[in-house]
Amino acid sequence: MKQITVSAPGKLMFMGEHAVVYGRPCLVTAVDQRIKVIAEILDKPQFELEAQDIGMNRYQKSLPDLAKGEVSKEAKFAEKAVYNFLTKNKISKGIKIITKSSFSVNLGFGSSSATVVGIVKALSELFNIKVSQKELFDLAYQTVLDVQRKGSGFDVAAGIYGGTIYFQNAGKIIESLTADGLNLTIGYSGVKADTVAMINSVESKMKNYKSGVEKIFDNIAKLVLEAKRAISEKDWERLGILMDYNQNYLEDLGVSSDKLNHMINAAKKAGAYGAKLSGAGGGDCMIALVSNENKLKVREEIEKVGGQVVDANINAPGVRVENL
Ligand code: MEV
Question: Who contacts 15 (Cβ-Cβ below 8 Å, separation ≥6)?
Fold first, then answer.
């Protein structure tokens, strides 16, 4: 039985979260914590899923019922990805998917989007269908929107392209950047963020005070553009300042939390060039831009205020086949 194994990286939002949902650019980097997806064709017309990391031992559905009726929360993204792929390519074969994650789904590294990217890539390899990165992006992003209704697609792009990218406008602009030397310390707040709830809270702010929020987004967009330049010039001091300004705007949007603020302040006090939350806010992770000299001190100070430092390298490769 032919089996394909692929892996897709998680992501960390570097700058531009929330504003990117409203058409502004963001910077995102892929992390070397990966989701493995194993796909095979079954003799029977059914979909099977094994995803032990999210407590799913053996989920089964007949092909005609795919993406219909009750779909268990954990299986939603995988099932929709398989359904969309089979439908688009007019294939009616049974499929088994096994997923294994090297990171906790709680970190906010984008396990759902990495899973979707991995599944679409694995299935195209399994059926020998050539798909460009853009086609892979379109199908995976559509799947995420089908399930979650909201999201900019930056996480899907990070899973596909890897490295560090400049992303805008639902993937109309995806630019790979050279970001060597970018040295980040990642601190987990211990709280799982609810991305959709955070997007909704910004949306309701937008309803009450549109021009103010639009102005914040425009300012964040300018910071992102400047940060892109600072990365290419390896101007870490400037980049740190830009991160701090970005954090201030995120606080204005009301998406930071006391815990994140404590960790960010601790990192700054320990000498980080800059620090901010990463992602939807309310929980998940913060990031600090560090030098080799202050890295250890920043780590210690984040831990002292109850943060958990996550050892993950950034700039990781995008989705790739592991077993050809
Ligand atoms: C969440 O990690 C980042 C947001 O900008 C949502 C998105 O871009 O999909 C809040």
Answer: 26, 27, 220, 223, 224, 227, 242, 243, 246, 276
Q: Which residues pair with 13 in a beta bridge?
A: 28
Mutate to test the pocket of ligand 1, among 20, 149, 192 (most ligand atoms within 8 A of CB): 20
Q: List the residue whose alpha carbon is closest to atom 2 of ligand 1.
A: 279
Find tokens 């992003």 and name the residue. 141
Please state the atom number of ligand 1 nearest to the C-alpha of residue 154: 8
3 state SS of 321: strand
- Can you give the pLDDT of all 324 residues of the chain as single tens digits? 789 999 999 999 999 999 999 999 999 999 999 999 999 999 999 999 999 988 888 899 999 999 998 888 889 999 999 999 999 999 999 999 999 998 888 888 989 999 999 999 999 999 999 999 999 999 999 999 999 999 999 999 999 999 999 999 999 999 999 999 999 999 999 999 999 999 999 999 999 999 999 999 999 999 999 999 999 999 999 999 999 999 999 999 999 999 999 999 999 999 999 999 999 999 999 999 999 999 999 999 999 999 999 999 999 999 999 976
Give residue 80 CA to ligand 1 midpoint distance, Å.
20
Counting ligand 1 atoms within 8 A of each CB, the residue from 154, 166, 206, 284 with the most, and so the one to mutate, is 154
| pTM listed for this prediction | 0.97
Q: How far is CA 251 from CA 46, 82, 202, 246, 276, in A?
A: 47, 38, 11, 9, 10
Q: Which residue has the tokens 């009726």?
A: 69
Q: What are phi and psi of 205, to 5 degrees?
A: -60, -40
The Cα 275–Cα 279 span in angstroms is 13
85 CA from centroid of ligand 1 (Å): 24
199 CB under 6 A from ligand 1?
Answer: yes
24 contact partners, CB below 8 Å, separation of at least 6: 16, 168, 217, 218, 220, 221, 224
Locate the ligand 1 atom nearest the alpha carbon of residue 153 and give its number. 9
